[in-house]
């Protein structure tokens, strides 16, 4: 049995030498006179001298700007700083940059869906479609700063739409079509979109889901909309909509536009690039805004130095369009790498379907969540026995913490000579905080290192830095890809309260983690009440907002617990209205409401009926204390009764978590 920290792989001298990070270190020697004995020394320099490191990123990757930047960094502290002021850049221009060098047959996108066979688009085809669609958007009146949103599947049309939108300076935001109308409106209403891309439906697990009704409700609920662009994805019937409606195919159907005839809209360094939604535990999902310059340098860093992608690689990571990992997959283009897009169930046509696609696309960098690994393990999948994976060099496991057993599965069933990287970051950065390094060894369950330019630490409750001990994961210095702000958050109060209020002046990420003396990182799960479902984080507020509309439910509380095997357990506790019984509001009724109004990911593992939901004196549901109870902590440790509005409400949960069957389920993993 593999144990945490066990050595599983070392890079060969040739693999390490040809890595992008080794080339960068050689450049630092030749251009800056800097020599580092090992990665840890390089990382230390990168956080000790932020301006020197990030200016090196800008110069090394030759970022295109109308004018030179005035300063790398302005401001003090972790939040509120400005990066590369004075520069005028465009993120999409950098993702499409390799088109100028690519041969006519070089592939930018491999793409497929349950209803579409695997196909390809060359760099020149992608560039041409982006320019044509961007020109169409300009003709429709889309201007820099306008919001454009997408309710589309993970297909090439969505990737091209994002690149076209960003190329003209508009602000992009996307959500997956599996989400119900209410969940979409909770997001998109906040940013008042001018145009929306929509699909007629999607397929998952062989089932067709018609989205005509949801699209109509979304359009009706967005009064700011001027235009709907509709993708005929499945050929389903479509109703008339109350705003100007165009077909995607018609909008993009125009003469070819040469590269030299198209002007990217170069915008200020902190011009909003996109809005990613990260769900909080109360209220609406947080509308996180990132900037062009910050994301350019961050993605050059993480895609090329930490993922080691280049013009000779192909990247795949299983994701939907509503998760930041979809942005990362498209961002593979910044390295000249091919990207693989797939829409549908990861097990459609067999539990080893993703490996078949990896073999067919000659994927070199494969990504999936630990949950998918567990599915394959249970089904006895052994990809190396069925598929030609000779092109595969690296695997990234992300979205949730990986166990030593997850690491071991890849070496036993996929490939012996494999750079396996588990990475951890978040929507807030659209990148990794703890990442892979191709020159370092792989140890079971360990994320290889802290990312360059990321001053990551683990603190105890007394703000003391910990090594080889579990504590709170924090970021001590600013990063270019930190949020510019939350859309509509006047004065930045919500942004501050979300990340800087718990530990003043420090970014508290909400993860329990450990950093070793050698610089490796272990993440053990969420320390706050964010929910993790199959590698995608969702907010408890999204579940509550649906349940509030279910007749007979008075209140509810949901938590998510990490299990020792790397899986997750998400129970829902429901308080019924007076006179209502569980037979009136069954678990099936609750599941159906959540599946239809939110998404399948919002459906809990089990439903329990409780007499009362515990609250603090300030009116907050006590999700974290209940989660800690479930994970084995004592009731007198998790909460002070003096701080509770209804102290006896916690008694039921204490008794519930003490039941033998619940203790077995939790396997006594404690947070104390």
Walk me through what this model shows.
The protein is of the alpha/beta class and 672 residues long. The chain folds into 3 domains: 7-95 and 273-526, Rossmann fold, CATH 3.40.50.12780; 97-265, Rossmann fold; 539-666, ANL, C-terminal domain (GMP Synthetase, Chain A, domain 3, 2-Layer Sandwich), CATH 3.30.300.30. Helix content is 30%, strand content 24%. The chain is built from 23 helices and 37 strands. Helix 8 (181-188) packs parallel to helix 9 (212-220). The chain is globular. Keywords: ATP-binding, Ligase, Nucleotide-binding. This is Acetoacetyl-CoA synthetase. Its EC number is 6.2.1.16. One of its GO terms (molecular function) is acetoacetate-CoA ligase activity.
Feature tags:
672 residues; alpha/beta; Rossmann fold; GMP Synthetase, Chain A, domain 3; seven-stranded mixed sheet; five-stranded parallel sheet; 23 helices; globular; disordered C terminus
Q: What is the structure about, briefly put?
A:
This protein has 672 residues and is α/β, with parallel strands linked by helices. Belongs to the ATP-dependent AMP-binding enzyme family.
% residues in beta strands:
15-25%
Secondary structure tally, helices: 23
Strand segment tally:
37
- Structural category: alpha/beta
Task: Count structural domains.
Answer: 3
CATH architecture of the largest domain: 3-Layer(aba) Sandwich
Largest sheet entry: 7 strands, mixed
Average pLDDT:
92
- Gyration radius, rounded: 24 Å
CATH class of the largest domain: Alpha Beta
Estimate the helix proportion, in percent: 25-40%
Outline the low-pLDDT stretches. Answer: 668-672
Distance between the termini: 27 Å
Which shape, going by the Cα principal axes? globular
Give the CATH H-level superfamily of the largest domain: ANL, N-terminal domain
Strand order of the largest sheet: 6-5-18-17-19-20-21
Provide the CATH topology of the largest domain. Answer: Rossmann fold
GO molecular function, one term: acetoacetate-CoA ligase activity
Protein name: Acetoacetyl-CoA synthetase
Organism: Sphingobium xenophagum
Domain Acetyl-coenzyme A synthetase N-terminal: 39-94
């Amino acid at each position: 049995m593999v144990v945490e920290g066990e050595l599983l792989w070392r890079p060969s001298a040739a693999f390490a030498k040809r890595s992008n990070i080794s080339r960068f270190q050689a450049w630092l020697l030749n251009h800056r006179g800097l020599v580092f004995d090992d990665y840890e020394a390089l990382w230390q320099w990168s956080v000790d001298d932020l301006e020197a490191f990030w200016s090196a990123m800008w110069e090394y990757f030759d970022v295109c700007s109308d004018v030179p930047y005035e300063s790398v960094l302005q401001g003090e502290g972790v939040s509120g700083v400005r990066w590369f002021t004075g520069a005028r850049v465009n993120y999409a221009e950098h993702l499409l940059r390799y088109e100028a060098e690519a041969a006519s047959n070089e592939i930018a996108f491999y793409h497929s869906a349950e209803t579409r066979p695997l196909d390809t688009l060359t760099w020149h085809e992608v560039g041409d479609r982006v320019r044509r669609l961007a020109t169409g958007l300009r003709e429709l009146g889309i201007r820099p700063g306008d919001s454009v949103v997408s309710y589309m599947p993970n297909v090439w049309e969505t990737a091209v739409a994002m690149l076209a939108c960003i190329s003209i300076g508009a602000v992009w935001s996307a959500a997956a079509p599996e989400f119900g109308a209410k969940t979409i409106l909770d997001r998109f209403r906040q940013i008042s979109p001018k145009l929306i891309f929509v699909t007629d439906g999607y397929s998952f697990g062989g089932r067709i889901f018609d989205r005509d009704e949801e699209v109509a409700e979304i359009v009706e609920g967005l009064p700011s909309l001027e235009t709907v662009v509709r993708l005929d994805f499945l050929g389903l019937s479509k109703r008339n909509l109350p705003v100007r409606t165009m077909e995607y195919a018609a909008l993009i159907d125009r003469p070819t536009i040469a590269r030299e005839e198209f002007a990217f809209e170069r915008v200020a360094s902190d011009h909003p690039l996109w809005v990613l939604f990260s769900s909080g535990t109360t209220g609406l999902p947080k509308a996180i805004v990132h900037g062009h310059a910050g994301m350019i340098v961050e993605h050059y860093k993480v895609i090329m130095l930490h993922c080691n992608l280049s013009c000779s690689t192909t990247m795949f990571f299983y994701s939907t369009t509503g998760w930041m990992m979809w942005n990362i997959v498209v961002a593979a283009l910044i390295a000249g790498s091919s990207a693989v897009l797939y829409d549908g169930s990861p097990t459609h046509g067999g539990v080893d379907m993703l490996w078949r696609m990896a073999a067919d696309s000659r994927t070199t960098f494969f990504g999936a969540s630990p949950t998918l690994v567990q599915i394959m393990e249970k089904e006895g999948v052994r990809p190396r026995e069925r598929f030609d994976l000779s092109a595969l060099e690296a695997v990234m496991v992300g979205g949730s913490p990986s166990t030593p057993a997850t690491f071991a599965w890849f070496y036993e069933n996929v490939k012996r000579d494999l750079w396996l990287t588990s990475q951890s970051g978040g929507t807030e950065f659209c990148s990794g905080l703890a990442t892979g390094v191709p020159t370092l060894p792989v140890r079971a369950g360990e994320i290889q290192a802290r990312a360059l330019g990321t001053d990551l630490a683990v603190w105890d409750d007394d703000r003391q830095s910990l090594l080889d001990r579990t504590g709170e994961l924090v970021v001590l210095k600013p990063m270019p890809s930190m949020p510019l702000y939350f859309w509509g958050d006047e004065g930045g109060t919500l942004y501050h309260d979300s990340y800087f209020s718990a530990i003043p002046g420090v970014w508290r990420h909400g993860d329990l983690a450990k950093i070793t003396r050698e610089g490796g990182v272990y993440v053990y799960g969420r320390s706050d009440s964010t929910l993790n479902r199959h590698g995608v984080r969702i907010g408890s507020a999204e579940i509550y907002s649906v349940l509030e509309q279910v007749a007979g439910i008075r209140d509810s509380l949901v938590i998510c617990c990490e299990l020792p095997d790397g899986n997750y357990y998400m129970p829902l506790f429901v308080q019924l209205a007076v006179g209502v019984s569980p037979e009136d509001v069954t678990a099936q009724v609750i599941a159906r409401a959540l599946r239809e109004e939110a998404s399948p990911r919002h459906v809990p593992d089990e439903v329990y009926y409780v007499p009362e939901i515990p609250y603090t004196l300030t009116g907050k549901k006590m999700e974290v204390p209940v989660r800690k109870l479930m994970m084995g902590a004592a009731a007198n440790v998790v909460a002070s009764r003096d701080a509770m509005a209804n102290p006896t409400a916690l008694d039921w949960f204490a008794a519930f978590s003490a039941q033998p069957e619940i203790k077995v389920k939790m396997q006594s993993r404690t947070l104390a």
